[in-house]
Amino acid sequence: xxxxxxxxxxxxxxxxxxxxxxxxxxxxxxxxxxxxxxxxxxxxxxxxxxxxxxxxxxxxxxxxxxxxxxxxxxxxxxxxxxxxxxxxxxxxxxxxxxxxxxxxxxxxxxxxxxxxxxxxxxxxxxxxxxxxxxxxxxxxxxxxxxxxxxxxxxxxxxxxxxxxxxxxxxxxxxxxxxxxxxxxxxxxxxxxxxxxxxxxxxxxxxxxxxxxxxxxxxxxxxxxxxxxxxxxxxxxxxxxxxxxxxxxxxxxxxxxxxxxxxxxxxxxxxxxxxxxxxxxxxxxxxxxxxxxxxxxxxxxxxxxxxxxxxxxxx
Length: 314
Fold this sequence. Notes:
This protein has 314 residues and is of the alpha/beta class. It folds into two domains: 14-56 and 192-310, HAD superfamily/HAD-like (Rossmann fold, 3-Layer(aba) Sandwich); 60-190, Calcium-transporting ATPase, cytoplasmic domain N (3-Layer(aba) Sandwich). Helices cover 36% and strands 25% of the residues. The protein has helices spanning 7-12, 15-26, 34-40, 50-54, 81-92, 98-109, 153-165, 197-206, 220-230, 241-250, 267-272, 299-306; strands spanning 29-31, 43-49, 60-66, 118-123, 127-132, 135-140, 149-151, 169-177, 180-190, 211-215, 234-236, 256-261, 275-278, 291-293. A seven-stranded mixed sheet has the order 1-14-13-12-2-10-11, sandwiched between helices. Strands 3, 4, 5, 6, 7, 8 and 9 form a seven-stranded mixed sheet that branches. Helix 5 crosses helix 6 (98-109) and helix 8 (197-206) runs parallel beside helix 12. The protein is elongated. The model is unreliable at 1-12, 281-288 and 309-314 (pLDDT under 50).
């Protein structure tokens, strides 16, 4: 029957599923099969990544703070604000992370030269490191320096805390010499919550989602401010990619869970959830995702897909 008439495959698929898939396509949503679509009817938990999902993912540099060091110690360091931004942008120019792009864009907007680096490495969830002239430079979060004998860490903590109180994310720039790290400056970056995010959260509750959470690698104070603003049930901050996987698994006790993400660190969590929803650049991830948003999609597109929670197979 199937061999003689391939149309039998189409006929065997409930019309309601085909209709829902078609409606999803019109709204910018690709469902990878009817089985995933049916499962969305049972979603009780939605976990959002923060950067690029609940926020625009296009943060901007707000502060550049230099920590003075003896100029003679480092070939690359002149102790100037523009020089700090040049160094950071050089290393971050090899990264696709939104925070990295913010630093590069800031340097370009000031017409600051961005030199070439060598031996670029990305340390997942922590930051990046590369060779610039005769020095190794790392650009990352505080936890990047856990394994180093770090100079000027106390000064850095005070600046980072101030930024956190202002809802900003801090990126530290340091010169590496063996197992020693010399922090030369801190760059503050702020992102903006998507204007449609709050409405999406409200409507998700109307279609039956009982628990809405946020997972982020950002610090607790920034995460709390955003979670409170959006009325989320809970938030988890300062996470590594493996931490997100663990939390997704833990939240499965509340029911079927969907993970919504857009970032280089979200792949494991997206594939761990019952339904993985990739937004923006994340659609290229080679994952068995149930729902995939198109390039440039927003959190509103995510909602358009989950609105089909009302779908029931007939």
